[in-house]
Amino acid sequence: MRIRLNIAAWMRSTAFHSSTAQACPPVIKNADGAILLTAAGPFAEGDTARLTCEVETCDHDLTLTWYHVGVKLRTAHETVATYRGGWKSLVTLGPLRRGHLHSNLTCTATNDVSIPASVTVLVDMFHKTEVSVRLGAGLNASDITEGADVYMECSILAASKVTEVSWRSGGHPVKGLTGDSGEELVTSRYLVIRGVNVTHSGRYTCRATSADGETTESAPLELRVRHAPRCIATRDTALAATPGEPLNVTCPVTADPDEDLRYFWIAEDSAGKRRRMRLGAAPAEHADGDDLGHVLPSVEDSNRLELLVDTYLFHATLFCWARNSVGVQREPCRFRFQLRRKDSPHLLDG
Hints:
Organism: Amblyomma americanum (Lone star tick)
Oligomer: single chain
Protein name: Ig-like domain-containing protein
Pfam families: Ig_2
Domain Ig-like: 25-111, 116-222
Radius of gyration: 40 Å
């Protein structure tokens, strides 16, 4: 009876120690066979990590299982025995993306008689800083109207600390932009322009410099400021002509958009008397007017007006302006007439 009790006690003792003992501890090795203590890598973005989980020696059969952020990996090979009495399993992870950075990769050893044993490493990566520029919500870079407030945001994804952020427009540093209201704000991550005008059209980029000295520039954001027509000439244009001759006059405006423009023509003498300009005719003596008797300008689809010069024009100023989908030109283009000498050009300097 005593012998039976001793055998039962021995069996209970053996079962107790087997159920509480930990399985043979695994290690994770890189492709060169080096044991990884805390991290695997660094890898470049797009690489595929190839790692081995290994137990060098163990008295029991083992199963090695790989997990990435707690999810079992299907890319792991089956556990195989080594010639030294150990066990190993190979896994591939990739192509690596930014989301893999600093994620956990775990190998767990299990069998039927021991507590599972695990080892975990972090996926380490080195990659270029990513920089991009985007407009604020509700804004369209190709449909900004003059006078609107515009703000841009510099978005940066970097593995290391960013020490400097700068803005550039047309390849030149942006230190401060002034809109019609004279208000602007340039910060490291934001560029705000209040009351944009046509001079703000162009390509904008953002540059980020990391602590390791790497500088990355974003792809350009093309900003298009739509505006009403405006005169290209900054002063009166002098035209040389003789009475009775036909003359072609071009209204020199720039506009965005420049499709479907309508052009307006009218002449006014020094006494303030206005006359409507008709295509292929001299200034109308009896011009159309509105209910108040004001002379209305002629409206044309073309920026070119062919007129017959008469003596009235030598004492008057010819005005032209245009209209597009944004609005009407604020300041008209102005022409004044001079008597043309023989062999002199029709267009004179200012």
